[in-house]
Amino acid sequence: MSKAHRGKGIRELAAHGRGKCARCGKDAIKTLYEVEIDGAKAKICKYCNAAIKNEKKKAAAAPAAE
Ligand SMILES: [Zn+2]
Fold first, then answer.
1. Cα(26) to centroid of ligand 1, in Å?
2. How many domains is the chain partitioned into structurally?
3. Domain membership flag for residue 7
4. Does residue 26 lie in a domain region?
């Protein structure tokens, strides 16, 4: 597996993968993760990627209806 989110892999991307994060709105940050937000594909930064992952984990771990 290559490093998809750093080094050579992102050199070919526009602006080296930097842009505005669709979730936190931070500018000039590396937006290397593509996720679906409300049915639309959005590019987000690694922090938001982690946050979304966490939310999903929490939702999955939480007991259903109580
Ligand atoms: Zn972000």
1. 6
2. 1
3. no
4. yes
